[in-house]
Specification:
The protein is α+β, with helices and mostly antiparallel strands and 516 residues long. It contains 14 helices and 20 strands. The strands form 6 sheets. The chain has a 5-stranded mixed beta sheet. The chain has a 4-stranded mixed beta sheet with strand order 1-10-9-8, covered by helices on one side.
Length: 516
């Protein structure tokens, strides 16, 4: 009996210790690697990915993307839409304060919006001024906790663009600028505030002790931003091998954007590697205006000659599956029906080439060496297409030249990659457009353009998903481009870091994370 009691006591002790280890522990410094310095401390202006990553720890917007790429609340605890779909009424969380102690009200939200709108350097002006979709006609601040955005017409993209990380519609205090209106210092309302920026070395952020998080569950950039670590240090380490060495010696805690080929090496060194379906899209572009490739049977032959699953397996070491659609598996809109595509069938490809009257004419496949993934895809694609009798010749260009050919629509085939978009309509818009105006457009079918227009305008998520499914069905029939796979998000984290979660945009998040 005594042995049983001792065993039970030991078991209870171990469970208690394990539970305690899982509980957040305040304190410490979390070090996150950046591959280059940030460009500024002002949201939305002179920005890049690293700048966005840092500033989203200092500032907050009304809404933000959740982990499934749906839109959730950030500064706004709720919102409602008018019956005509042209007015959005946001209710701010209670008790929000800026880092200077001032309360955050609708007045600062309106001020921050007006400042962005007036700045010619803000790259998202055109997505809110009506020239590329949403047109905001007015922003009102009728009460301290109420913000009203008025639109020219209903939009399915307004909330998504308001949450868009790259647009940086974030709220700052007016004291962030000097008397002449020049940016002075970042005063936000996020869980961290600026401590020090050592150019080309590091950016240090300190935890805001009186920060009041949202009551909603944390997900992506939305919901509760509960900071546990006392400081976040964004350490600038340009060289990848040096960054991995720093991770193995605990000089760095988090590295984002890890190549799948490095996973085994890092795991062997005791590093925790996390993966998630990503948003970056690898594709084979087809110029359907080319005299040869205008033949739909030839395009179908190309489609069934490509083993997309094999390419995805080889390129991501099994982390990603083939997906030709404009909807990533990470998105709330995703449905298995989006994986439908002409099946790999080399025999059928050969037969289709005969039906198309193909006589071995050379087809140039453009790629570049700057982005090794594009080049690797090109080599695999050439091998598969050559195997069924297509005379595909790789044309290796420098990246600037390839991009110029892409913008002019001057190519037959291209191995290409698109950076991540946060909504399927934005992904479709990277290759579906009026080719008379945009030479880079891969697809300009009138029915497809009309479906995309409706998807941009309707806020009904069920209707939007149906439109995306219909678009994919038409894409599958016409084959103006061939999506290969979405690159996985891969982050490496030291074992003494807890609570960290990789997500589709592959942006580091320091809140909800503790060390122990």
């Amino acid at each position: 009996m005594k042995r049983m009691l001792v065993a039970a006591w030991l078991c209870a002790l171990l469970v208690t210790q394990a539970f305690a280890e899982q509980q957040p522990k305040p304190g410490g410094v979390l070090t996150v690697r950046l591959n280059s310095d940030i460009r500024s401390l002002e949201p939305g202006v002179n920005r890049d990915t690293n700048t966005d990553n840092v500033l989203n720890h200092i500032f907050e917007g009304l809404v933000a993307y959740r982990a499934d790429m749906s839109v959730g609340g950030a500064l706004a605890e709720s919102w409602s839409v008018s019956d005509d779909g042209k007015a959005y009424r946001f209710v701010l969380r209670d008790g929000i304060k800026f880092h200077n102690g001032a309360p955050l009200t609708s007045a600062e939200v309106k001020w921050s919006w007006s400042r962005l709108q007036a700045n010619a350097g803000w790259q998202c002006r055109n997505v809110f001024d009506g020239s590329q979709g949403v047109k905001v006609t007015d922003v009102e601040a009728p009460e301290p906790r109420i913000v009203i955005y008025r639109l020219e017409k209903p939009s399915g993209m307004f909330l998504k663009q308001l949450a868009n990380i790259q647009c940086a519609v974030l709220v700052s205090h007016p004291d962030s600028v000097d008397a002449q209106g020049q940016w002075r210092t970042p005063i936000g309302s996020g869980p961290f505030k600026l401590a020090e920026w050592k150019h080309d070395q590091s950016i240090d952020l300190d935890r805001v002790t009186d920060y009041r998080p949202s009551d909603a569950s944390a997900s992506g950039y939305a919901g509760a931003r509960i900071a546990y670590v006392d400081r976040v240090r964004f350490s600038i380490i340009p060289d990848d091998s040096a960054a991995r060495a720093a991770l193995r010696t605990n000089a760095v805690d988090v590295i984002t954007g890890v190549s799948p080929e490095r996973i085994a090496e890092l795991q062997a060194a005791g590093v925790d590697v996390q993966t998630a379906p990503g948003l970056g899209r690898d594709t084979l572009l087809i110029n359907i205006k080319d005299p040869l490739l205008a033949n739909p049977k030839l395009r179908e032959a190309i489609a069934v000659a490509i083993d997309r699953e094999q390419i995805a397996e080889a390129r991501t070491l099994g982390l990603a599956k083939a997906n030709a659609s404009a909807v990533s598996a990470s998105m709330a809109y995703f449905d298995p029906a989006f994986l439908a595509w002409p099946a790999y069938d080399p025999s059928r490809a050969s037969a289709l080439l005969k039906e198309a009257g193909y006589r071995g004419e050379p087809i140039k496949l453009q790629t570049n060496k700057r982005y090794s993934g594009m080049d690797a895809n090109a080599i695999l694609l050439q091998a598969m297409l050559s195997a069924v009798g297509l005379n595909v010749q790789i044309e290796t260009l420098d990246w600037a030249t390839q991009l110029d050919h892409y913008m002019k629509g001057d190519f037959q085939l291209q191995s290409f990659s698109y950076s991540g978009r946060f909504d399927p309509a934005l992904t479709y818009a990277t290759f579906l457009a009026d080719r008379a105006r945009f030479k880079w457009a891969q697809w300009d079918d009138p029915d497809a353009l009309e479906m995309l227009r409706e998807a941009m305008e309707t806020p009904d998520d069920a209707r939007r998903q149906r439109l995306f499914l219909d678009l994919h069905g038409l894409l599958t029939k016409q084959i103006p481009t061939i999506g290969l796979f979405y690159e996985p998000a891969v982050d490496a984290v030291t074992r003494h870091v807890h609570g960290y979660r990789v997500w589709a945009p592959d942006r580091p998040i320091a809140w909800g994370v503790w060390k122990g």
